[in-house]
Amino acid sequence: MIANIPDQIDKLRQAYRTGLRPETVIADVFRRLEAVDDPGIFIHTDREAALKAAKALGDYDGRPLWGIPFAVKDNIDVAGMPTTAACPDFAYTPDQDAFAVARLKAAGAICIGKTNLDQFATGLVGVRTPYPAPRNAVDPDIVPGGSSSGSAVAVAQGIVAFALGTDTAGSGRVPAALNNIVGLKPTLGALSTSGVVPACRSLDTVSVFAHSVADAWAVFDAAAAFDPEDAYSRPLPAPRLCGVPPVLRIGVPDAASLETFGDTIQKDSFRKTLAMLKVNGAIISEMDFSPFYEVARLLYNGAWVAGRIAAIGDRLTTAPDTLHPALRAVLEPGLKLTAADAFRDIYQLRALERRCRDLMADIDLLCVPSIPTFVTVKEVEAEPIAANSKLGTYTNFVNLLDLCAITVPTPPRADHRPGSVTLIAGKGRDALCAALAGRIEGNFGQSSGSQPVTDVQEDEIALAVCGAHMSGLPLNGELTSRNARFLRRCRTAPRYSFHALAGGPPKRPGLVLEKDGGAAISVEIWALPRAYFGDFIDGIPAPLGIGTIHLDDGGTVKGFICEAGGLDGAEDISPLGDWRSYLSQHMSRGA
Hints:
Layout: H1 8-17, H2 22-36, E1 42-45, H3 47-56, E2 69-73, H4 99-106, E3 110-115, H5 149-156, E4 162-167, H6 174-179, E5 182-185, E6 205-210, H7 213-223, E7 249-253, H8 264-279, E8 283-287, H9 290-301, H10 304-311, H11 315-318, H12 325-331, H13 339-360, E9 365-369, H14 377-382, H15 384-391, E10 403-410, E11 419-426, H16 430-443, E12 460-465, H17 477-480, E13 485-491, E14 496-500, E15 509-513, E16 522-529, H18 530-538, E17 544-550, E18 556-562, E19 571-572, H19 579-588
Parallel strand pairs: 2-3, 2-4, 7-8, 7-9, 12-18
Antiparallel strand pairs: 1-3, 4-6, 5-6, 5-10, 9-11, 10-11, 12-16, 13-16, 14-15, 14-19, 17-18
Helix pairs in contact: 2-3, 9-13
């Protein structure tokens, strides 16, 4: 079985290069589906169409997803397959693929069928469906998670290499956590929602389930593109991997606001992950998470419920019997909302957004438990709304605040249930989330972990920084706010003197190329988009400037240099060779 074996896409690529045929893989996919014997995973499959698509691929041509089997949540169109959104009365058969599906097929992937979901993608439990509910792949007593239940279970059971879901309130993250797989929720607008049955149009995104961070990123990379036909699509920079900066500032709920509903095992599991991150150099900043929880409550207690009503048209009033009872219970209060209610909630969200942005101003990303606790099928049967709400504690606020996120497994809890955390960052910082998620995989032995990223694209400039622009230091935001990517840490050639310049704050170093001798100085290399380069250097004060830096591997990059005439009053710190070492000594002596 594929399940819980990392980097399946790369393994299949290697097998294809040595002669494995996609038809063999597709036949094996359906054998595994039969062996799992769970009629709730798929609403529709098409073995013959998948085999035909496999044969049509011809010889291996190197496309990134050539021959890779995948599944699609049944609120996303696949040409020739019915779309039901788990409502048989709603069913239609599209004649073209959703934009994201078309991108994946163009990359060589093979769709085997449409997966089950909470009806109209409203729910986090995965059992709000008129069809048999999928069984959780880890423990059938636990809910599979929703709304993308079938997609998550199909991946976790090893039936497919990856699957598409959607995520409005956490539907691409909660099922991943409950089934011990990776769930990538991109920045809103990074993946087109053309051909997707909306849940709440302004907050929807297509999401990716996979066995590893590397696999999820490969799918995201293939599917991401601007879609001019989608009013919510954004012309974002192309997805590009980055490294994990040496110093990463991570915000987490403080002891008073860490919510696990009395689940002490979950709390202990989360703290173990934070301890690992600290060992790897992360700076953990505890914060009051109350504003995030207040945002989360707006999603189902505010006017955004009306957005879900708009998505299903007048079905709630004209054909209520076609809807799942739990869905009706969620949506019917929205019929009483007014335009004034909508504006009041928009104003409240804006105020809360300001508070949340202030909390995140001095951190790089958030780390939270993916779910606060586990919910069983029996608990949902007893309290369908309350049990569902618990699961959204750490997910409901993310799209309302225009953040990206990725859910990644951690070691099993003390009771052997899956461990998981979710990393959350500002829009467009998907690569940073993925890089740290890969590091978490590597440290817990689930994958090879993140590898150093050294590539610089044609529309980027490699820039060496040696002072306050380094990760975790006061001016690093001048890079990250311009979509700069961390590449690696290295040293200059031993040809420089290094100085702590007079003035500040912040304290700044000066790097000077020497004619004879000199030291090797620690630097960080960042890839800065060329479009922002002029704006960036415009803010650099004298005596600093940008020149060519010689590295210890013989290469050169652009980087900060200092005019020799600017060293008046400066302290020569060349023997230290590292700005962080200087700052540590500077602070220890109370300077």
